[in-house]
Predict the 3D structure of the following.
Amino acid sequence: MSRHHPQELETLWLDALPEHAVPAAEAALQSVCRSVALFRDEDTDTWRVEGVRELGVKEDALTAALALASAFTGVELTAERAPVESEGWLARTAQSFPEQEIGGRVLIRPTHVPPREVWGRTVLTLDAGLAFGSGEHNSTRGCLIAFERVAPRLARTPRDGRRILDLGAGSGILAMAAAKALRRPVLATDIEPWSVRIAAENARLNGLAPLVHAALADGWRARSVHRGRYDLVFANILARPLCAMAHDLGVRLRPGGTAILAGLLGTQARMVLAAHRRAGMVLERRLDVGPWTTLVVRRRGGLLRPG
């Protein structure tokens, strides 16, 4: 939840969506909404994607995001909308965002919860807000659980050899978890300028500004991400962009390096894995959290040339 509260809010929703359209629809609403939720209708096997935003904010961005998602999925996506009382929504949002224990190592603490001593967990102070990644979404949870399992191996590598990238960082939650657990610098990139600002703000809030560098980048196209090879890459985005960027990931991941891939439904896992196998990676682990899947892949030996 943003610390700058609007006076007027509205709910946007997309109804009766087929499963393959859900990730793109969710991403479209996330580009303008404070909070996005998914609901499945068991009877019809369709989905509802719903978000809350400041009334009328980023209308052009919403139109463009829905048009792109429609072209991408082949499903006509038109958002319905209704006003919502901001006071009641903000109170309900605070109540519905308590401390979250994720896996065995991470605790997400919103700013409205008083601090307390916690042993054996990485504590991240974070509010649900405009940038994606508050720990509530199952794709984020899957990434954090996957990182918990690969972190011990990374901790044993030489300190000068732990290069970490969070690609499409959103709030910076994954970058912060890695920086805090490994005490190593992390490059956190996003295509949205406001996500970069929020990730940097969250890093400062958690005392991680010296370790988390938030930068504007469109996937692998920015020069800032081409400075050597990485031991760990987080990519919590969408299935088709993951497939499109698989070769670039293979080029930039060190032999033996690990990538944690998320933002995909279980039905899309085979497609994403096939693209990464072609790029020289092997599956190490698959985690399913609800309908969402996280893939942990490792780079085989040898180097790929840029395509």
User: Anything to note?
Assistant: The longest helix spans residues 138-155. The chain has two domains: 9-94, 135-299. Residues 1-6 have pLDDT under 50 and may be disordered.
